[in-house]
Amino acid sequence: MDAQVTGMMAEIGAAARAAAAELSYASPERKYAALIGAAHEVWARRVAILDANYEDLAYGAEKGLSPALMDRLTLTEDRVRGIVDGLRTVAEQPDPVGRVLADWTRPNGLHIQRVATPLGVVGVIYESRPNVTADAGALCLKAGNAVILRGGSESFHSSTAIHACMAEGLRQAGLPPASIQLVPTRDRAMVSAMLGAVEYIDVIVPRGGKGLVALVQREARVPVFAHLEGICHVYADRDADLAKARAVVLNSKTRRTGVCGSAECLLIDWQFYTKHGAVLIEDLLRAGVEVRTEGELLKVPGTVQAAPEDFGCEFLDMVIAAKLVDGVDEAIAHIRKHGSNHTESILTENNVTAARFFERLDSAILMRNASTQFADGGEFGMGAEIGIATGKMHARGPVGAEQLTSFKYLVTGNGTIRP
To answer: What is the β-pairing status of strands 180-182 and 146-150?
Structure first.
C-alpha cells in the first residue's frame, strides 16, 4: 500500500477517533440539531445534488452499468425528498445512547446496570446508492458514532454533494466535523486500508455486490457486520390466497429489481399450481421479467431453461428463477440450500404452515403474505438503515441506530468489598 493511502487513512482515522470520543457524550439535542440541519441543507441544495448525480450517471453509462445498477445510482427530486424524510425520521427517534438495557441489585448490595453505548468508529463501504451517504451518516451520528464513508466510484459526485450537507449540519450544531467523513478519493486502495485499520475503526459495514463482499471477507481485520447477497425467496403455498399471491409476487420482483430485498426465486407448491395454473409465472412474464425454470414450468410459453447456478443467484435485474416444490418442507429445504439468510416470504392462509416456515428457517427476515421489498430499515420504522445484516453476531436484519450501539456495565456499591 503506498504512502499516500497510508497517510490518508491515518489522518482520517485519527480524526474519527477524536470525534468519536466527543460524540460518546454529545447531547441528544445537538445530534438532533445536526440531523435537522443536514435535512434542511439537502433540500436547499437539491439542484446541486441532482447536477452532481447527472455527472455520476454519465460516468455509470460509460462504465456500462446495468439498468438495475443505474436505477440504484439515480437520484430524482422525489428520491432527494426521501433522503430528507429519512434524516428527519432518524432525528425524531429516541436517542439510543444511555438506554438502560437491564438493571438489578445483587444480594451484597451492588447495583448493576447494563447501559447502551456507542460502538466508536464505524466504517461503511458501499456501492452505487448515493442515499447511503445520508442514511449511514445519520444513523451513526444518532448512535454517537463517528463514521468513515467510502462510497462507490460511480456515485462519487452525488455522495460528495450529500456529504457537504451532512458536514454543514454538524457545523451548525457545534459537533466535530470529523464525525462524518467521506473518503475523498476513488482509489480502491482505500478500501483495503479501511479493512486493515484496526487501530482506528471498530466495525466495518459493507453494502454492495459479490465482488465487494468477497473482498471484505478476504481482507477484513476489522470486525464486520455482514451484509451478504439478497437471495430472497417467495413461496406460494397450497393454501395461499390467489389475489394476495399475485400482488406480492409481482411487487417482490418488479418494484425495484436492483435492491437487496428484490425476490430472486419463486417457489410454487404443486397443489397451488394444480389449482391455479401458471398465473404467477404469466404475471411475471407480462411484466417483462425473464423467468428461468425447469421441468413442468418450462411448458409455460416464454419461460427459459434454468441453469443450476440460477437457483442461488442474486440477479438484481428483471430475471427470476422459479421452481415447483412439494409442500412447505421442500420449500424450506430449497431455501436452506440456496438462500443467503436475507429475506424469505411465505404466501399462505394456513397458520400452522406459516408457523412451520417461521420456525424452521433462520433468515434475518421472514415474512408472511408481504412483499420482500419491505426488507428495509425505513419500512421497519427505523428511519433508515445502514444495511441488512445477514450474520448472527451482534446485529441481524435492518441495522438502524439502536443496532449501532454496544453496552457497558455501571456498578454502584457503598464501600462494598469482596470477602
So the answer is: parallel
Q: Cell 440504484 appears where?
A: 72
Residue 312 backbone class (left: φ over 0; alpha: ψ -120 to 50; beta: rest): left
Per DSSP, the three-state class of 259 is coil
Q: Which CATH number goes with the domain that contains 213?
A: 3.40.605.10
Note whether 16 and 60 are same-domain residues. yes
Residue with cell 468508529: 121
Q: Tell me: pLDDT of 261 over 70.
A: yes
**Among 289, 46, 19, 53, residue whose Cα is nearest residue 146:** 19
Query: For the stretch 35-64, what's the b/e string if a residue is b when 16 or more beta carbons lie within 10 angstroms of its beta carbon?
Result: bbbbbbbbbebbeebbebbeebbebbeeee
DSSP code, position 137:
H
Does residue 325 share a domain with residue 221?
Answer: no
60 is a domain residue: yes
- What is the domain count for the chain? 2
pLDDT score for 112: 94
- Model-level pTM? 0.81
At residue 324, what is the residue type? L
Average pLDDT over residues 93-119: 95
Residues 195 and 290 in one domain: no
Q: Is the domain of 151 the same as that of 292?
A: no
Same domain, 126 and 252: no
Judge whether residue 113 has pLDDT over 70.
yes
Residue 261 lies in a domain: yes
Q: pLDDT tens across 269-311, in order?
A: 999 999 999 999 999 999 999 999 999 999 999 999 999 999 9
CB–CB of 303/297 below 8 Å?
Answer: yes
- The pLDDT, as a whole number, for residue 383 is 67
- Looking at residue 415, its pLDDT comes to 87
| 237 and 218 in a common domain | no
Local structure of 20: helix, strand or coil: helix
Residues spanned by the domain of 317: 232-374
Q: What is the CA radius of gyration of the chain?
A: 23
Q: What is the pLDDT of residue 94?
A: 94
d(CA 335, CA 330): 9
Please give the Cα distance from 345 to 364 (Å, whole number).
12
192 shares its domain with 126:
yes
Residue 314 to residue 263: CA distance in whole angstroms: 9
Q: Any idea what the CATH number is for the domain that residue 260 is in?
A: 3.40.309.10
